[in-house]
Amino acid sequence: MMRAIRLFMLVEAVSFSVAAFIHSGGLIAGYEHRQARIAEGVIAIVLLGGLALTWIRPAWTRTVGLSAQAFALLGTLVGIFAMAVGVGPRTVPDVVYHVGIVIVLACGLSVIARARSAQVGRRA
């Protein structure tokens, strides 16, 4: 179970890092957006920090995974709200990304929520 939690967090962190890089203009020109870049960068850092913490304190994996992914989901929902009210970027790729990452985050949270603490802390 630890492996699954860590894999979800790694995939999500990489995804948010790429999104932040895109919004910095580093990968695709024309998609620059300062606020989106900052938000996605912060979410990526939280997920990477949580991932590192699962290696430092394996017994905390379930709690850290729930916390980091819940933070990421909340941040993503704020991003969706910003798009809806016209503050954030509203391109088709942005909308598709947000819908996709919400699904991934929900799946990750579901996997962690169903895992018993004893199962997660057993193996590093």
Describe this protein's structure.
With 124 residues, the protein is mainly alpha-helical. The protein contains 5 helices and no strands. The chain has one domain (2-121). Helix 1 runs parallel beside helix 3 and helix 3 (61-85) runs antiparallel to helix 4 (92-114). The model has no long low-confidence stretch (mean pLDDT 91).
Order of helices and strands: HHHHH
- Give the number of domains: 1
Low-confidence residue ranges: none
- Helix fraction? over 70%
Structural class: mainly alpha
Number of helices: 5
Shape label: elongated
Q: How many β-strand runs?
A: 0
Distance between the first and last residues' Cα: 10 Å
* Main sheet: strands, sense, barrel: none
Arithmetic mean of pLDDT = 91
List keywords for this structure.
124 residues, mainly alpha, 5 helices, 0% strand
Quick summary of this structure?
This protein has 124 residues and is mainly alpha-helical. The protein is built from 5 helices and no strands.
SSE inventory with pairings:
Elements: H1 2-23, H2 34-56, H3 61-85, H4 92-114, H5 117-121
Helix pairs in contact: 1-2, 1-3, 1-4, 2-3, 3-4
